[in-house]
Write a structure and sequence with these properties.
Strand content: 15-25%
CATH architecture of the largest domain: 3-Layer(aba) Sandwich
Number of helices: 15
Number of strands: 15
Strand order of the largest sheet: 9-6-12-11-13
Distance between the termini: 44 Å
Radius of gyration: 23 Å
Helix content: 40-55%
CATH class of the largest domain: Alpha Beta
Oligomer: single chain
Structural class: alpha+beta
Shape: flat
Order of helices and strands: HEHEEHHHEHHEEEEHEHEEHEHEHHEHEH
């Protein structure tokens, strides 16, 4: 029988436990011989990114932040309690925090906003996130909604209505007619409860902003920008769109692009579908680039078994990748987009 990768890590080892708890708290881990199986496991899962400033230090990336807590719940169930105990306030810390909060309270306007930017919140109240805040700390902090204030970008001709809590719906039809794209702030997106109105024939998430903006798309295809480092907003909207509207992902032909398609499909409960035009292989000799040695990020080296798709298999064997914007001006591209809808 084959061994599951997580079974190669001794999760009961106190050193491993301390290392993984520290990783959750600080988003960083330093490789050494004792925790090497843990680091190799996390690298294999593509949950770590090498720290460019310090070696051999690795940072927990977006995928790791998303998926590591769920894994720890299975293999190290008491990790949350251990984190909480570490963050129980001692008398001096409690006094300092209460003094700070009292000062902020006495110098805060009465008409408090519902939302705060993440940077503003961290400056005022500290940088502990939900995974590492104890119940005691959470009880002392004001209840703001916190946003990174990114934006969701949408293109297409659909007149979908984005329904918000106690606010007027956002009608996409007029926006996309007036401008080259509809831009929805994160704060508005997080207030969405459902979508109504005209639905597109298909949703296509696009990895790179340049391709998202320049792609010549047919009617009834909705484009949603899903950047590699923060696809959360695209995922948030797709979850609200009925499942009878199919989704397909168009990204770079590299390991990270493949993983992004998997992530979006997994988070939205949809099958993995990737848009790989039949003629794309013709661009290999002119536009293929060597993969980097990194395990994540654009152009990261291929990992896992060789793909059954002949085109992808050749790229993997040659340790090369292809950027998606290389095929933007090819007249066959729009035809293949049309074929998707039919």
């Amino acid at each position: 029988m084959s061994t599951q990768p997580e079974q190669l890590v001794n999760w009961q080892d106190s050193v491993v436990q301390e290392a993984v708890i520290a990783l959750c708290e600080t988003r960083g881990i330093r490789q050494n011989a004792t925790i090497l199986p843990l680091v190799l496991f996390l690298l294999d899962k593509q949950w770590l990114t090498p720290d460019e400033q310090e070696t051999p230090v690795f940072k927990l990336n977006t995928n790791g932040t998303r998926w590591l807590p769920a894994l720890l719940d299975q293999v190290f169930p008491e990790w949350r309690e251990r984190v909480e105990v570490r963050y129980e306030l001692n008398p001096q810390e409690r006094s300092t925090l209460l003094s700070r909060l009292e000062f902020i309270k006495n110098n805060t306007r009465f008409d408090l906003p519902l939302w705060l930017n993440q940077v503003s919140y961290n400056s005022l109240f500290g940088e502990l996130d939900d995974e590492t805040q104890s119940k005691e700390v959470k009880a002392l902090l004001p209840d703001f909604k916190v946003s990174r204030d990114q934006v969701l970008r949408i293109r297409g001709t659909t007149d979908m209505h984005l329904v918000r809590k106690m606010l007027k719906p956002i009608k996409l039809g007029p926006l996309v007619k007036l401008m080259s794209q509809a831009i929805i702030p994160e704060r508005d997106l997080q207030e969405l409860t459902e979508v109504e109105g005209e639905q597109p024939y298909m949703i296509m998430t696009v990895e790179n902003l340049s391709t998202f903006m320049d792609l010549d798309i047919p009617d009834h295809l909705m484009l949603i920008w899903a950047p590699l480092d923060y696809p959360d907003l695209a995922i948030r909207l797709i979850k609200l769109i009925p499942h009878y509207v199919p989704h397909i992902h168009f990204g770079d032909l590299d390991a990270s692009g493949m993983e992004l398609a998997n992530l979006i499909a997994s988070e939205t409960g949809r099958p993995v579908r990737r848009f790989i035009p039949e003629f794309w292989h013709e661009y290999t000799s002119h536009f293929a680039q060597p993969c980097s040695t990194a395990k994540s990020g654009k152009g990261a080296r291929w990992q896992g078994p060789v793909n059954s798709n002949e085109f992808l298999r050749k790229l993997m064997i040659r340790k090369e990748w292809l950027p998606q914007n290389a095929i933007l001006l090819d007249p066959r591209l729009k035809k293949e987009l049309h074929n998707l809808l039919s």
